[in-house]
UniProtKB/TrEMBL annotation, chain A:
Keywords: Cell membrane, Copper, Electron transport, Heme, Iron, Membrane, Metal-binding, Respiratory chain, Transmembrane, Transmembrane helix, Transport. This is Cytochrome o ubiquinol oxidase subunit 1. GO terms for cellular component: plasma membrane. It is found in: Cell membrane. The chain crosses the membrane at residues 38-58, 79-103, 123-146, 158-182, 209-233, 245-275, 295-318, 330-352, 364-381, 402-422, 434-456, 477-499, 511-534, 605-624, 630-651. Residues 61-579 form the Cytochrome oxidase subunit I profile domain. The keyword Transmembrane helix applies. GO terms for biological process: aerobic respiration; electron transport coupled proton transport; respiratory electron transport chain. It comes from the Bacteria. The keyword Protein biosynthesis does not apply. PANTHER family: CYTOCHROME BO(3) UBIQUINOL OXIDASE SUBUNIT 1, CYTOCHROME C OXIDASE SUBUNIT 1. GO terms for molecular function: cytochrome bo3 ubiquinol oxidase activity; cytochrome-c oxidase activity; heme binding; metal ion binding. Belongs to the heme-copper respiratory oxidase family. It comes from Tistlia consotensis USBA 355.
From TrEMBL, chain B:
The lineage of its organism: Bacteria, Pseudomonadati, Pseudomonadota, Alphaproteobacteria, Rhodospirillales. It comes from Tistlia consotensis USBA 355. This is Cytochrome bo(3) ubiquinol oxidase subunit 3. It comes from the Bacteria. It is found in: Cell membrane. PANTHER family: CYTOCHROME BO(3) UBIQUINOL OXIDASE SUBUNIT 3, CYTOCHROME C OXIDASE SUBUNIT III.
TrEMBL record, chain C:
It comes from the Bacteria. It comes from Tistlia consotensis USBA 355. GO terms for cellular component: cytochrome o ubiquinol oxidase complex; plasma membrane. Keywords: Cell membrane, Electron transport, Membrane, Oxidoreductase, Transmembrane, Transmembrane helix, Transport. It is a multi-pass membrane protein. This is Cytochrome bo(3) ubiquinol oxidase subunit 4. NCBIfam families: CyoD.
Amino acid sequence: MSGGATWDPLLGRLGLDALPFWSMIEHPTRPEIVNGSIATAAASVVVLGALAVVVLVTRKGWWRALWSDWLTSVDHKKIGIMYVVLAFVMLARGVVEAVLMRAQQAFGLGGGFLSPEHFGQLFSTHGTIMIFFVAMPFLSGLINFVMPLQIGARDVSFPVLNSISLGLTAAGAGLVMVSLVVGRFSTGGWSGYPPFTELAYSPGVGPDYWIWSVTLSSLGSTLTGVNFAVTIYKQRAPGMHLFRMPLFCWTALCTSILMIFAMPPLTVATLLLALDRYAGFHFFTTTLGGDMMNYANLFWLFGHPEVYILILPAFGVFSEVFSTFSGKRLYGYSSLVAATMVIAVLSFTVWLHHFFTMGQDADINAAFGIATMTIGIPTGVKVYDWLLTLFRGRVRLTTPMIYALGFTVLFVVGGLSGILLANPTIDFQVHNTLFLVAHFHNMLVPGLLFGMLAGYSFWFPKAFGFRLDERWGRISALAWIVGFMLAFFPLYALGLLGMPRRMVAFFQPAYLPWTIAAGLGGLVILFALFSLVVQLRVSVGAREANRVPVGDPWDGRSLEWATAAPPPEYNFPVLPEVGSRDPFMTAKEAGAAYQEPEAYEDIEMPANSALGALLCLCGGAAGFGLVWYLFWLVVPALAVALGALIARSFLRRTTRTIAAGEVRRTHRHWLAEVSRTAAVTRAGECDVRNRGRAVPAALEAAE
Amino acid sequence: MSLQRRHPGLNLGAAHQEADDASEVLVFGFWVFMMSDLIVFGLLFATYATMLGATAGGPGPRDLFDLRSAFVETMLLLASSFTFGMASLALKYRRDRGRLLFWLGLTLALGAGFLGFEVHDFLAMIAKGGAPSRSGYLSAFFALVPLHGLHVTAASLWLVVLTVQSLVFGLDTRVKTGLLRLGILWHFLDLIWIGIFSFVYLAGLA
Amino acid sequence: MSGGRQELTPEAARERVQELRACVWGLGLALLLTLVPFALVALGGLPRQPTLWTIGLLALVQIVVHFRFFLHIDLSRQKREDLQLILFSLLILLIMVGGTLWIIFDLYVRMMPAMLP
């Protein structure tokens, strides 16, 4: 029942052939050498990158700080930052893989340079990484950092659980990275459809890598969702009614609810597939009553809400960006909230449109097609609200705003192609073609990635105390927009020409001009990624000139801007009392911002915990052991995890107290900094005059 | 005042000020998590229903299920729900550790008895040729019912841990909020079992 | 803190009796709702279809009983967000399970009649 292949009790399935260059040594043919070299180069990047980090941390003597300030920290801001760092590392890999695939298809007429096996791994890892290890960590990171600040809380409801969620996600990401060095990843796509991913057809370790990395990340996301939802329900500052929350918090709430209910189907699907592969069950096999249609159904019960898990936080970011950089109240707040909730509920009613062609009744297809098109209505409401927020505003074309405008136009295009696909009759024509690939990239690149990058430039000064370089930021944003259009608009044409997705090579010369154009687009996107790196490098170098210690560089409206940049561990010296929507803007306009509270109190904060880091190691080890049948590793890893959880429950001192005197000192120091700093108008927003104190838009005319 | 509730389920009430405050967030969070778990069970029930016809020529419910055993398991679990309820009342009104531990011990014994019968059932099924690898139907059965058993095992382990803690630390806030959450889990598992004995065992044998 | 029993206020004592009664009622009702379907199947009096309906109906009633008497959930006294949570969960469960059965059994009817029970 172990798949016929033999395995050693000690080494499991591990052998020399798990090394990426082994097959090229054994069979030194030209294609083997090309593919083996690419795989080996990629593996070397992973190994050397990891070594470089270790050497750097050792030489700088950062181990202690890394451990006690970051890895064991349960501060929501630090956990948020670690999530975003993880997302950026994985984004780099995902983009490089995308460019390789575009290159393959640009040379793909009659063959190209990649083997089908290698190409299959590329599109499987690309999809898995981009969804589970870029998008999910990025949005979890942003919500983690921003949401508690926006609702006026000191931390999330369950800080240690937060660190565990990060650990599980990181363990999943680690497994995907390890698969580059040891063994091969799945070739079954990001959705891992059986029966192809069953033992009978994919006996290797690939699907197992996929199963365990995705399972770890989905467990992490479920717990994250619970944590965020409870935080928003229970930790809001006094007076912060639900309908006074910034829109980003609303989208965070809806995303968390989707995570709570939509991750379980994925966990069920991957674990049932694991039972098939490990214990000889017959859920999705082709024999003895297995039924793969159940898998498609389960997977998309998760898969469709997942799309909205990804996109709602970006909607939230754009809502903040539009209103802040227009110097206006968000237009149609209530309708935006209602639209968000409607989208969240409707997202559970449309999953079948991912398999219109599976063979069910036309009535069922029609019902789900109509439900799908209905989602266009609340989404349309949102677009109009954003446009009307811009109307007669004091619009500044900063980096986040460029992303936001690019998003608005491109997202509408993508949405329209979605309305086409929602029609089952049209879907029958273009399903499984590049038209679909163009459509979902058209939703996810502008709708998710642009939102996340906009959020990154928007809140970076809050997190680190200095602004990012504006010039490179704009270059990068424009490169992302142009690169995206060049890379994906041709895929619409290719799809209509009938080119199937996930094809390693083709023999139809008419495709070639389009694949070459898309390949060039891939290069522009690579440049966009490169400019992000340059931007970070330049900004860190010039950080002294761009400091914004007062903490309000963009004339912000919500509570996160009312505290220092970077904020103190406890966020607010005294929890704010909220009397309106946009409380910080109201205070600034009334001249009531930056007040000293009447009294300071001791603040109790959760103490550091190594549990998250430990469970990350255990989860990673258990996953790796399961992939390679190293059961001697799995059992102790799980036992240690369980033991650690029990031991933790015996701990009685889990908080530490920050004395009122220290809070007072820190706050007074900051207030002195505030009064020393000259407020800038929006004309000086992007230069060195901006020290983080803003003249509010309403008072700017008088200035 | 006594009707003031902080979260769904049993509330400790004003007599347990500190634990009552702490429980508001913890218990609500645990409820949310349980709802997520409910979806897992719901989908496994749905999968079981879609696999009813997938016996692939192998044994079906009538060949494998033992009504008497299912009945005993049901009674054990129901009794344990009652004893846990009594334990909760002892915690809330008596603050009497001896009585609390008595009811918790009884609950644990009933839970262990349930697990014993269940494992015996599974072994008997496998002996009759009803192993999970025999057919899609049996796969679905062995994903749904043992998952419930696994939950009961985890809950029993948690019960043991909390009992030890109450001996070490007394009935402090952490133990009280822990017992509140374990109570929710315990009763929730009995709810799932209603689904299992009705839709799996009884409907299978009807 | 773990010492002997403490005196209860009259109000608390009344409340305790109330909750104790709820617990016993819960046990009694649950017993009844369990024994009836088991007896139906064991004795085999009714034809199959009505038996199945009865089992399903009694199971639903018993779930409500457990919610009411063991989990202390009812519709009147909750904070709104808690009630919202449970109702929303049931809605999602209904969509997912109902949708799954609708889709998969339709597929069986059209393509794999052998999979129909």
